[in-house]
Amino acid sequence: MQIRLFFFYSLVFVLIIILASVPTYIYLKRGIEKNALNTMNETVGNVAEKLDASLKEFDNISKQLYLSTDSNNRTVIQHLEILQNDKGSFDEIESVQAVYSLLGLVTSIYNDIHRLTIFTSRDAVYSNPKAQMPVAKAYPDSSELQEIRQSAGETVVRYADRDRWASSDASPVFSFSRLLNPRQDKIAVIEMQIRAGDMLPLDQIRSISGAVLALSDGDHVLFDSAAGNASQPQRNAYVFRKNIESANLTISLTVPRRVVLSELVLFRNFAVATLFVLVVFSLLVYYYLSRLLTQPLVKLKEAIDSIDLEDKKLNIDNKYKVNEIERINRSFRNMNSRLQHSLEQIVQFRMTQLQSQFDTLQAQINPHFLFNMLGIIQESAENGELPQVRTISRSLSEFMRYSISTDSPVTTLDTEVSFSMRYLELMKTRYMHRLTYSFDFDQNMLHMMVPKLIIQPLSENAINHGFAGIPHPLHIEATGRLVGEQWEIRFRDNGAGFGPERLEEVRFKVQKALEHLNSDFDTIKLGMGGMGLTSTIVRLKLMFRSKLQVEIGNHPDGGAEITMRGLING
């Protein structure tokens, strides 16, 4: 029977895991793949946008050569014509200055330009920054220069692994070139350079294993990030393309499928390993529990027989006439009667045990409070404030006498209120104007007997937690009223109040403590540091029993609020 149950449980458990894991894996696979594809598409789109913006920028600069005039009402094109024809004249000097002035102005406006160069058909070079190479060395491959000079004025985009006009700059660049006055004298060529790193996410592409970014002009490949790596064409790969129609340029990004889905593979392996461990652990636990629960009933009989109990018939269905069950029946009858006689003893023991815990807590007053008070006394004495030293010392002496006294666990509400006000007066010597308080209790309820230390712990909690994050002084307010035969004590502050999680935690802790009063009493632990809210409510509950009502929450105007109600006669 046990083996059948074990295998049945194992089969059901594995089936549930499979049914839950497969849809989850499919959902995550689609999500991860979609996110990865969107990221790659955005990368290609960003490159296309930057390239298109650079093309428009170059077109705008080219137009300025024809349209913008200087103080002599001449365009750059006209100045270039002067430089082409009038050698050694004053106009030639003005034209050189005009060309360089335009180059400097444009490069200062467009910060992404690495170099802006104009070189004439007679190989005169004007560049910003200044060119270090003549045209012949800048274009060692004459076919590339011929292609530009024989064009019809369209933009020619090329990639170079270094700045052709500099002798030491090895930064890869994209160049945008155009023939000026293509239908007349083809007077010069303008070339704009932009660093490749500013246009292409090269570091991002290199970080992706097997990824290849390419830029092509028709069938001519201008740039290939895998150039020199002898990479083979990817078969099982995603390819993302973006066309720039105005320049007949195409940007493509090729990424291996295994790279795109690498996160999914990692998650799958981790999930499989986790599920395997979970299944094995669960089966081992179930096997152990099944063995534990099917031990001979005689052991359970012996455990119950060890308790002194009185005979009382227990209605256990023993239709199969199992001897062990009959023995348990007789043992339980013995236990049941003894429990009835022991109830009053247990209640008294619980009261005694709680009082013992309370006495221990009284002996462990928060040392930080004492250190702070002694520090204030020392500082006042050093400043010669002897009246304040006497007042604080007297209040501290009365505070200690009351808090550590174990003569009786109960006192009058009047005494408890006076003690709490004395505590707050002591705390005002530390916080001064940042702490205020007001106590308003009905005179007819001040003679009521209550457990010791039920208001002071609430004041201490308010000070410890209420100052957090508030710009205004902390005000503590305690009121007491009689409504018919019922008393009500309301305690609140204007501090930080309970956060949602903290409020739920406090309510849960109080609820558990009250439940354990009638079950597992040993699990109740009174809180340290002012004994705490739980201790206050537990001791009030033992005194006023089921008539006690407690509400814990936040006041609508801000701050924490605690309300306690009970009958006057308990």
Written overview of the protein:
There is one protein chain. Helix content is 52%, strand content 18%. It is elongated. The protein is built from 17 helices and 16 strands. Among the domains are: 128 residues, 2-Layer Sandwich (Beta-Lactamase); 59 residues, no CATH class; 205 residues, Histidine kinase-like ATPase, C-terminal domain (Heat Shock Protein 90). Strands 2-1-5-4-3 form a five-stranded antiparallel sheet. Strands 11-13-14-16-15 form a five-stranded mixed sheet. Strands 7-6-9-8 form a four-stranded antiparallel sheet. By secondary structure, it is α+β, with helices and mostly antiparallel strands.
Q: Which tags fit this structure?
A:
Heat Shock Protein 90, 570 residues, Sig_transdc_His_kin_internal, alpha+beta, Histidine kinase, five-stranded antiparallel β-sheet, elongated
Q: How many strands?
A: 16
Tell me the distance between the termini.
56 Å
Figure out the total of helices: 17
Please identify the top-level CATH class of the domain at 363-567: Alpha Beta
CATH architecture of the domain at 363-567: 2-Layer Sandwich
Q: How do the strands line up in the largest sheet?
A: 2-1-5-4-3
- Report the CATH topology name of the domain at 363-567: Heat Shock Protein 90
What's the CATH H-level superfamily name of the domain at 363-567?
Histidine kinase-like ATPase, C-terminal domain
Shape label: elongated
- Largest sheet, described in full? 5 strands, antiparallel
Mean pLDDT: 79
Spans where pLDDT lies below 50 across 5 or more residues: 308-312, 527-531
Radius of gyration equals: 44 Å
Coarse structural class: alpha+beta
Helix content: 40-55%
The share of residues in extended strands comes to 15-25%
